[in-house]
Amino acid sequence: MCGIVGYIGNKNTKEILLDGLKELEYRGYDSAGIAVLQGDTFESFKAVGKLINLEEKTKDFITDRFAVGIGHTRWATHGKPTELNAHPHLGESSYVVHNGIIENYAELKKELMHNGVTFLSQTDTEVIVHLFEKNLKTSSSAFGAFSQTIKEIEGAYAILLVTKSEPDSIFFAKHGSPMILGKNSENENYFASSDTPLIGQCTDVNYFEDGDFGYVNPQEIAIFDKNENKKEPNFSKLSTNKLSAQKDGFRFFMEKEIYEQSVVIADTLMGRVSESEVLFDELDANLFDGINEIKLCACGTSYHSALSASYLFERYAKIKTSVEVASEFRYRQPIMTKDTLFVVISQSGETADTLETLKMAKEAGLKTLVICNVDNSSMVRLADATVLTRAGIEKGVASTKAFATQVTVFWMLTLFVAKLRNTLTNEEIAKQIILLREVPASVKVTDSMHERIKRLSKRYLHGHGFFFIGRDIFYPLALEGALKLKEISYLHAEGYPSGEMKHGPIALADPELFTIALLPQHLLYEKAKSNVEELSARDSTICVISALEFDKADDFIQISTCQDYMLEFFEMMVVVQLLSLEISIRLGNDVDMPRNLAKSVTVE
Q1: Nearest CA among 257, 183, 256 for reference residue 220
Q2: In what order do the strands lie in the sheet with 513-519?
């Protein structure tokens, strides 16, 4: 997820771009940059890390007359977070910013280099500006060159381009990534990746459709559809409530973030999966040299994603894997051997207990890896290697999309290690990658499912507790489902392995004990079903989540018929998140800010 802004007008262009990027920083803070064209003079600034670094770099830069400007805040996909890889990217006389991925960039780059073009970055984006300038040499106009460029690129993109040959214009294109045009009564035009940078600046907005491209200048807004037919802009009034715009019409940020999981998982996958293998440019293969064990260490929801990963590492990569609760690991004088890769997981990268275990591992001489959502966080700076989850800012205290992206990263990482260790064939890895590509569709929330859960939730507002039960990798999901419910509803809930019910917990079974049973069709279905029947026989109230109907269930939430248990995992994840959300809303709780909790736990 990256953020884009653009501006055409007479005001302080620098400040408008920086203010817009502040509203989009949650979409990426690996690096940021702006380019401003005043007359025939370009000024460009880039900085690695958070936006405050770019603000410091531009503090002496003044824009006090008509200018066109573009800005970008980045999640790294192609190439590491460096100033050279930061946007905007420069040609001879043009700059470009881009969200998305250019799928055919490698072949375009090869052709451009053959024609003498020198590339400065490792990004796919840089091909856009060089391809445009190549086309400019043979086109009758800058727009003709831009149109030809859009025809030649493939993939998902939102693009803004400025060039000295048309110094009062911004060229734009949108396909698969969001892009909005705003205007006001002062004949100023703004571009952004979402509404929030435009609130307070614009009165009306046009939401571009996939395939739209064109140009904007003080005299004209020219929009063309994918068939090159000119179309009129469709402006609508822009909300003046920034908080409402940030929620995009959802009741709570947590609800919005559940719905966002499809998009952020696609971002997590972007640039990291080819047809036949997983690609982590940020990892050196020698990180795994001499490694015979992986130790995963985390707290809370991140601990549950680590537990999920342990099943995948041992199943696919055939490597011994253990999982530790960070707050316990710190104090039990653990034995750490140098053939162990020590992996810490944290949404914020600042979780105190987890950070301390990372320091312990470093002092013991272990290789270290962090799975994290925040670049430049303490863990990222300390670990030997980092994989960023790209979930964007998560405002709801109860984690949803952070968990989803962590599990996605771990699934990819197990395939990456499996290839290094030759524990899966190329064909098996290719099949897994096909499944990975289906995850964004699996986590999309349908109206019918959400409405079913909303209506069902009114039956689960009392009783003396909940059991969430599952087998294998669905046991960590049961733990996570119970944690979500506890966090925001304040009802007692526990996650258990299904097979452990008969070893004590079943003593609690009665009609006021609610059992949320995860029954995947493709993993130990009959075993798990038998465990649920044991609870049903003791008159526990049963809610089954499965693709297959279960006649002994009091309530049934049906998921799609999937090809694989991992797709069932992600779809059930959405169900337990929504169930917790709707129960909490019915109880009248503040879903986003539950009592006694904080988003980033920096205390011990």
Answers
A1: 183
A2: 493-497, 465-470, 513-519, 541-546, 555-558
The Cα–Cα gap between 318 and 334 comes to 23
Q: Which two tokens stand for residue 570?
A: 């992600």
Same domain, 40 and 105: yes
Neighbours of 56 (CB within 10 A): 11
User: What's residue 602's pLDDT?
Assistant: 43
Question: How far apart are the C-alpha atoms of 371 and 374, rounded to whole Å?
Answer: 9
CATH number at residue 87: 3.60.20.10
Q: Which residues contact 52 (CB under 8 A, 6 or more apart)?
A: none
Are 32 and 44 contained in the same domain? Answer: yes
Which residue is it, tokens 């969430």? 468
Choose among 132, 101, 221: nearest CA to 170. 221
Domains of the chain: total: 3
Same domain for 472 and 551, yes or no, is yes
Q: Decide if 2 is catalytic.
A: yes
| CA–CA distance, 602 with 604 (Å, rounded to integer) | 7
Are 96 and 87 spatial neighbours (Cβ–Cβ below 8 Å)? yes
Complete edge-to-edge strand list for the sheet that includes strand 293-298: 320-325, 293-298, 340-346, 367-372, 385-388
Asked if 181 and 279 sit in the same domain, the reply is: no
Q: Are 259 and 239 within one domain?
A: no
> What DSSP letter does each residue of 438-454 carry, written as one string?
HHHHHTPPPHHHHHHHH
Domain-ending residue, one of 417, 443, 469: 443
Q: Which of 2, 372, 543, 562 is catalytic?
A: 2
Q: Which two tokens stand for residue 211?
A: 């395939």
Closest to 535 (Cα-Cα) out of 555, 505, 566, 573: 505
Distance CA 363, CA 303 (A): 22
Side chain identity at residue 497, one-letter code = P
Cβ–Cβ under 8 Å, residues 522 and 546 = no
**309 close to 407: Cβ distance less than 8 angstroms:** yes
Distance CA 492, CA 468 (A): 11
What is the residue range of 232's domain? 3-247
**109 part of the active site:** no
- Residues lower than pLDDT 50 in the chain: 602-603
Residue pair 561/521 in contact by the 8 Å Cβ criterion: yes
Residues 30-89 pLDDT 10s: 789 999 999 888 999 999 987 889 999 999 898 888 999 999 988 666 777 788 988 999
Q: Given 443, 473, 491, which residue is the final one in a domain?
A: 443
Query: Is the domain of 226 the same as that of 338?
Result: no
3-state secondary structure 402-430: HHHHHHHHHHHHHHHHHHHHCCCCHHHHH
Sheet of 155-163, strand order: 89-90, 94-102, 155-163, 166-175, 213-217, 220-224, 230-231
* Unique residue bearing structure tokens 């609690």: 508
What gap in Å lies between CA 31 and CA 89, rounded to an integer?
13
Amino acid present at 562: C
Together in a domain, 74 and 41: yes
Q: What is the pLDDT of residue 94?
A: 94
Q: Is the same domain home to 396 and 490?
A: no
